[in-house]
Specification:
The chain is built from three helices and 29 strands. The protein is mainly beta and about 425 residues long. It folds into two domains: about 150 residues, no CATH class; about 230 residues. Strands 9, 11, 13, 15, 16, 18, 20, 22, 24, 25, 27 and 28 form a twelve-stranded parallel sheet that branches. The longest helix is centred in the N-terminal third of the chain and has 15 residues.
Length: about 425
C-alpha cells in the first residue's frame, strides 16, 4: 500500500466545531456519517447506559455505514441535529482509503513484529486515537477486507477496508481523549507544507524518521501549530531538519521540540517564524549538530525562549526574544556561537535569577554577540561559561539584575 494524503491538514482551533471538520472531510472526498458520543459520566449518548459496548463509536443513523455521504446538505443536517456527534469515515474503495488501527502497546508490539518480518510500512498520515494511532493508506484497488485483528499473529492490529469505518479526529474517545493531531513515521525523507494542526488535546504534529539506516531530511514550511495540548511541532530525526515560515503558539508544552543527529536550519525565505505563549520553551532542542536560525520571534513562553540541551554550534540572526519566564537563550555547545541583531529583553520571572543569555561552551570556543540589545533581565544580561573569547561588537547590555542581588550585565569568568 502507498501513503495517503487525503485526510485534511486543517483542524479548527475550536474542537466543538465538528460540523466544520465533517464538511472538510466530505469536501475532500471522504464519505462521513454521525456516530454516538461519550458522555461525561462515562456512558454513551445511545441511552444504553453502562450496557453499551461501543461507547462513542457506533452509528446514530438507521443504516449506519451505508448512510455515509459527501453531500454537504446531508452532512449539515446531521450535525445540526447532533452537533456533538463523533465523526465516522467510510473506508474502502468508496473513499479510497485503508486504515491500520494500532491499539495501544499490544498493537505497537505487533506492528514491530510485522515490520520485522515483512519490511517497513511507507510513511503516511497517522492520527492519534484515544489509546493508540491510525495509519491511513491509499486503497490499492480490488477488495480489501476489514479484519480485527488482521491476523492471530498480530493482536492489537486491526484493518479497516471495504465494509469498515474509522472514528475520525477530533472525535471524543470514551477515556476523554480526542482523536487528534498528525503523526508521520518514515524511513525516508519527510516534506510537509501548509499544515494547520490546531486545538488538539495531544501533540499537534510529529514527524519521525529516526529509524532510518542513513541520514534522512525533514522539511516543514508555511505551517501553523496553535493551541495544542502537547508540543506544537515535534521532530525526531537522523538527518537535517529545516523549518521555514512556522507559527507555533499557545501550545501546552513546547512550541517546537527536536532531537536530531543532524543540522537544524530555521529559514525565513518564505516568511518569519513565531514560537510564542507556549507552556514550556518556545524552541527546545534536545540534540542537534549545527543550528542556524533567522528572523525568529520567541516571546512570553513558560520556560526558556530558546533551550539547547546539546549542539555543536549556534547561529541566530535577527529576532526578538522577550518576556520568557526563564532564560531568553539557554544553550550548551561544543563549538562557537554567533548571535547577531537580536533584541533580548525582560526575560526571567520576578524573584528568579534567570539571565537574558546563558551559554555554556567548550574551552576553546568563541562567542560573538553582534548588534544585539540585551536589557531588563532579572539575572545577568549575559552569563558565559567556558569560552576562550567573547566578542561584543555594536551590542548594548545594560539595566539587567532587576532584582538587585549583584548579578552583572556580563558574567564571564
Amino acid at each position: 500500500m502507498s501513503n495517503c494524503d487525503q485526510i485534511p491538514d486543517s483542524t479548527p482551533a475550536n474542537v466543538s466545531d465538528l460540523l466544520g471538520v465533517a464538511l472538510a472531510y466530505a469536501q475532500s472526498g471522504l464519505p462521513v456519517f454521525p456516530l454516538h458520543t461519550p458522555r461525561p459520566d462515562g456512558t454513551c449518548s445511545c441511552g444504553q447506559g453502562t450496557g453499551c459496548k461501543s461507547i462513542g463509536k457506533h452509528p446514530r443513523t438507521r443504516n449506519g455505514l451505508k448512510d455515509a455521504t459527501t453531500d454537504e446538505a446531508q452532512v449539515r443536517a446531521w450535525w445540526t441535529t447532533w452537533p456533538d456527534a463523533n465523526i465516522g469515515i467510510a473506508c474502502g474503495s468508496r473513499s479510497g482509503i485503508v486504515v491500520l488501527d494500532i491499539d495501544g502497546p499490544q498493537g505497537e508490539e505487533s506492528l514491530r513484529h510485522m515490520t520485522d518480518a515483512h519490511g517497513a510500512l511507507p510513511a503516511t498520515r497517522t492520527i492519534k486515537t484515544g489509546k493508540g494511532r491510525q495509519m491511513y493508506f491509499q486503497h490499492p484497488g480490488g477488495r480489501v477486507k476489514s479484519r480485527a485483528p488482521i491476523s492471530a499473529d498480530y493482536p492489537g492490529l486491526d484493518s479497516r477496508g471495504d465494509g469498515g469505518y474509522v472514528v475520525a479526529p477530533p472525535s471524543l474517545h470514551a477515556n476523554g481523549n480526542r482523536y487528534a493531531g498528525i503523526y508521520v513515521e518514515s524511513h525516508g525523507a519527510i516534506n510537509a507544507t501548509s499544515l494547520q494542526t490546531n486545538g488538539n488535546q495531544t501533540l499537534g504534529t510529529g514527524f519521525t524518521n529516526n529509524g532510518a539506516l542513513t541520514p534522512q531530511t525533514v522539511s516543514v514550511t508555511k505551517s501553523e501549530f496553535l493551541g495544542n495540548s502537547g508540543n506544537g511541532l515535534e521532530i525526531l530525526s537522523v538527518g537535517k531538519a529545516t523549518l521555514n515560515n512556522i507559527r507555533s503558539n499557545n501550545n501546552t508544552s513546547n512550541g517546537f521540540y527536536i532531537n536530531t543527529t543532524g543540522d537544524l536550519a530555521v529559514l525565513s525565505t518564505l516568511g518569519e517564524n513565531f514560537f510564542n505563549f507556549n507552556g514550556y520553551a518556545g524552541f527546545n532542542v534536545f540534540n542537534a549538530e549545527n543550528i542556524n536560525m533567522s528572523k525568529v520571534t520567541i516571546n512570553d513562553n513558560g520556560d526558556e525562549g530558546i533551550y539547547v540541551n546539546s549542539a555543536a554550534t549556534l547561529s541566530i540572526s535577527s529576532g526578538s526574544i522577550f518576556r520568557n519566564d526563564e532564560q531568553g537563550i539557554d544553550a550548551t555547545l561544543t563549538g562557537d556561537a554567533v548571535l547577531r541583531n537580536l533584541m533580548v529583553v525582560n526575560n526571567g520571572i520576578p524573584g528568579s535569577n534567570y539571565d537574558g543569555i546563558r551559554l555554556t561552551t567548550a574551552p576553546a570556543s568563541i562567542v560573538s554577540i553582534l548588534g544585539c540589545s540585551i536589557t531588563g533581565h532579572v539575572g545577568s544580561g549575559i552569563d558565559l561559561t567556558g569560552a576562550s573569547d567573547l566578542i561584543l561588537d555594536g551590542s548594548f547590555y545594560y539595566g539587567n539584575d532587576t532584582n538587585n542581588d549583584g548579578q552583572s550585565n556580563v558574567d564571564w569568568p
